[in-house]
Amino acid sequence: MRPLRKRPISVTIVIVGVLFIGAINLWRVAGLLRQMNMLLTLPLTMDPRLQLAIASGWAILFGVLGWMVWRFRPITRWLVPVALALYTIARLLQTVFFAHDMPINSAELILSAAIIAFSWWALNRPAATSWFQSHPTTGTNRHGQTRTTP
Length: 150
Fold this sequence. Notes:
Layout: H1 9-41, H2 48-70, H3 76-98, H4 106-124, H5 126-134
Helix pairs in contact: 1-2, 2-3, 3-4
């Protein structure tokens, strides 16, 4: 059996970033739950219960993705950048459809694009690829056969 390779720092940064986005959304869930009674009395364009459901979904998704990268799951090499892109698009659509008076923040879009590009690079560069393949849950077994565990 091959020795385990040390996790590249770029992958660690992606793990921390993904878990941070999950934590931000979890914090949002906590704030919405705490203020739900007051928010329901206000004439908001987006129902607070919908906001709660969306924030809960993102918190769960990014928490699971962070755990999956931590556990060497190769599917996360493309799933993390796709989830980040969907998160960016969802935030943009929320601004367009529910915050009519608020202008679209181009700096936020540029930063989001840079984060998506970094996550793609960090998870698909040669050092990360070999790290994903060197772990016992992926790669080759002692007979040289490619294997993955669910």
